[in-house]
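Batch manifest, entry 17 of 40.
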Amino acid sequence: MFTTNPFSELSAFISPAIMQTYLIIMIILVAGGTLADMWHKKSAQYFFANWRKAKDKGTPVGGGEMASLAIQTAMVEGLTSAEFCNPQRRLAHLMTMYGFVAYIVTTVIMVFAYPTSAAPTPVILPILWYVGLALVCVGGYWFWFFIRVDVAAEGNSPFRLVRADLFIVSLLLSTTLGLIWAYTQSTGNAIWSNIFLGLYLLATTVLFGSVPWSKFSHMFFKPAAAFEKRVSVANGTRSNLPESADRTDPAVRDSHSMELLKDAPLSMGLGIKREQPRHY
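Output type: structure tokens
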């Protein structure tokens, strides 16, 4: 099962051209949905307006420094998701992100390059496909049941659904049903295989077709916002945010309005080690 291309097995019943056309439609839906989301929320307009404002108010940033900031953004916020302070959420996010990338890339390669058994699929591709699905499921369900703020801190039921959950729910349904479909296909049970194939395609269509109403497009916006933030710090504008107080500077320490906090240690004692707030 783990070394077999499930799409080449499916080609005995569905034409590879149909599978390839479906993937192209999903790509168009993602691109069109992202553009529609940008137009509706005016996110691109806000981004470029803020960029011009920071450029006019701040000191110029050279091309070399700009390239360095872009590399830092790609390495820190992009590849390692360092913006997450919670290590559990960061790990769950990384598992979901890299699993999703492996799942999408291997799907495209197997459907377009090895759509039938006539072209033997390299063993590594289906293995990465299954690993990607498993990573999405582990990271996604971990986040859904144990890390979500409205569940972990506010005490809501993990089965409560709101519009903001559309992306993660459709993603988990797509990957979970994909695993179940691949398993039923490997067992040779045609009836259950066809049922779960239909459910898998339905969930996947919702995932890629609901971009204007879900958080799918955030994966494109967040790197741009992170890069803009680094540039605003470099040119001195800081996006209108105040600088962090340097408690080691006597002038900053003496300017504190509460006399008792002037000589307070940076680590305020056991208060910072209290149990995480829940059900407030």
